[in-house]
Amino acid sequence: DTAVSQTPKYLVTQMGNDKSIKCEQNLGHDTMYWYKQDSKKFLKIMFSYNNKELIINETVPNRFSPKSPDKAHLNLHINSLELGDSAVYFCASSQDGAHYGYGYTFGSGTRLTVV
Amino acid sequence: SQQGEEDPQALSIQEGENATMNCSYKTSINNLQWYRQNSGRGLVHLILIRSNEREKHSGRLRVTLDTSKKSSSLLITASRAADTASYFCATDDSGNTPLVFGKGTRLSVIA
Questions:
Q1: N or C end of chain A: which has fewer CB within 10 A?
Q2: Does A100 touch chain B (CB under 8 A)?
Q3: CA A26 – CA B91 distance, rounded (Å)
Q4: Which residue of chain B comes nearest to A31, CA vs CA?
Q5: Chains A, B: CB contacts under 8 A, how many?
Q6: CB contact under 8 A, B104 and A41
Q7: pLDDT tens track of chain B, all 111 residues?
């Protein structure tokens, strides 16, 4: 019974296309996140979102936008894909942020390749 | 911005040996966490240590935290081939901001 699930697992697309990655969590967590992991394994926060607040990393291009239809879902939409967007994207969730003392639960990742 | 810096970047040991990884960070924290990532998989939460704790154990894992030096270490005792993975530290800075991850240590345990 997958706790945080992402689809698709692999995504190959051409430059300039628009694509979405879906994320769902069945843990009842309040906060969800999107992280980008580059080829050197560096994990960078892109967004965090709960019912009340969207926190955007200011370095994320506005071509990236999170969309949350409900508490259990946080999808990532990317417009006008560029070669540099190629990376592994991870969705994660937590109960009211890390400061409550619980860790994050991660999805298995979506490997995006822009050609 | 990046907070944690793991050291070493890569570590190769024989099965049965202990593995020690270090993490340094820059700002004050509420807690520090360690995660494991197997190749091609997501990150898995291993252990959390709060800023007022100095040491914590979980099975073969031992984590220490020195807030005066802004550093933490993860010790895996009696390593196994299945421990082969990348290990990341992550800091929570007391606010409502997301975890900030370090660059990770790649551990290879040779059978």
A1: N
A2: no
A3: 25
A4: B98
A5: 69
A6: yes
A7: 456 678 899 999 999 999 999 999 998 998 999 999 999 999 999 999 999 999 999 999 999 999 999 999 999 999 999 999 999 999 988 666 789 999 999 999 999
Residue B107 forms beta bridges with which residues? B11, B85
The residue among A108, A74, A57, A104 whose CA lies nearest residue B88 is: A104
Nearest-angstrom CA–CA distance, A99 and A25: 20
Is residue B80 helix, strand or coil?
coil
Test B97 with A108 for CB contact under 8 angstroms: no
Nearest CA to CA, how far is B13 from chain A (Å)? 21
Q: Spell out the residues 6+ positions from residue A52 whose beta carbon is closer than 8 angstroms to its own.
A: none
For residue B58 the two structure tokens come to 């979980």
3-class SS letters over chain A: CCCEEEECCEEEECCCCCEEEEEEECCCCCEEEEEEECCCCCEEEEEEECCCCEEECCCCCCCEEEECCCCCECEEEECCCCHHHCEEEEEEEECCCHHHCCCCEECCCEEEEEC
Length of chain A, in residues: 115
Cβ proximity of A82 and A14 under 8 Å: no
The closest of A48, A58, A40 to A93, measured between CA atoms, is: A48
